[in-house]
Amino acid sequence: MILHFDVTVIGGGPAGIVAAYNIANQGHKVLILEKEPKIGSHINNIENLFPNFMKAAIVLNELTNKSKHHNIRLITGAFVEKTYKENKLWIVRTSEGKLYSSDALVLATGFRIFDARYKEELGYGLYKGVINTVELEAMIKKKEVLSLQGKLPKKIAFVNCVGSRDEKVGNHYCSRVCCINAVKQSIEIKELIPETEIYCFYMDIRMAGQFYEELYRKSQETYDINYIRGRVSEASETIDKRIQIKAEDTLSQLPLKMTVDILVLM
Fold first, then answer.
1. Which of 257, 250, 234, 42 is nearest to 130 (CA)?
2. What pLDDT digit, counting tens, does each position of 160-178 carry?
3. Is the peptide bond before 255 cis (omega within 30 degrees of 0)?
4. I want to staple 260 with a disulfide (CB 3.0 to 4.6 A). Which of 116, 157, 181, 188 is the partner?
5. Which among 129, 101, 141, 145 has a CA at the least distance from the CA of 244?
6. DSSP-derived 3-state class of residue 177
7. Are 24 and 30 in contact (CB under 8 A)?
8. E strand spans, the chain
């Protein structure tokens, strides 16, 4: 037996839920298939949202309410194995062998974070003091931003554009989110640990969104966050398990060496 809906949405994250809700509001019957046990995707692991630092839990609650629309049927734990077209209908098959048909199909399957282990020179997966943005977000959510030694970090460095516009790993595009996310997380750390020095290394700052540029300016004027235009060429571990980085300041055209407690790869 194949259940039929007007529209099937694959993915129960923010994009999928909002798309389904807008379609359902127009009187169409919508099916949402989410592979995880609950909706929300990455937003479940985020503390605040940029640019206004709204609590992610508030948005998640709104998404939950939207998913309960009378024209929406939500199925969680449904891994989509295959989609194909049969005559004029889209057929979706889950890993459990269940089939669903619809007149239209919306793919809202979210994103995967870049595996920084491909950039061996930055030490991710080699040194415990090198983490990615998702791991830092978990620390911020718990309000436990600590160094490897279990102490409050005195110095943290962010490296933007890891894997972005990088032909060696097959990414020819900018994600458009790591710059603003680095600004957001830098501010969150300064609010938790005001005495921490923060340095952000970047190729170019792309604050693509309303109020994002203002937040970038505020991070410098109010929170004293340092921005260095240049690439980090190498990261290594010191004898006391801190991270030493080598880079170049392309504005001053000078090399620099810095030792930090945590290195965050965006």
1. 234
2. 999 888 888 888 888 888 9
3. no
4. 157
5. 129
6. coil
7. yes
8. 3-10, 30-34, 48-49, 54-55, 72-76, 80-86, 89-94, 99-107, 130-132, 155-159, 197-202, 226-229, 232-237, 243-249, 254-260, 262-265
Q: What angle do CA 128, 122, 145 make, to 5 degrees?
A: 40
The separation between the first and the last C-alpha atoms of the chain, rounded to the nearest angstrom, is 46
**How many CB atoms within 10 Å of residue 170?**
8
- pTM confidence score: 0.90
- SS3 label, residue 136: helix
Q: C-alpha distances in angstroms, 188 versus 30, 54, 192?
A: 38, 12, 6
The total of other beta-carbon atoms located within 10 Å of residue 175's CB is 19
The answer to whether residues 133 and 265 touch, using CB atoms and an 8 Å cutoff, is yes
pLDDT (tens digit, 9 = 90+) per residue, 15-31? 999 999 999 999 999 99
Phi first, then psi: give them for residue 231, nearest 5 degrees. -95, 145
Question: Which tokens in the block code for residue 257?
Answer: 């060496």
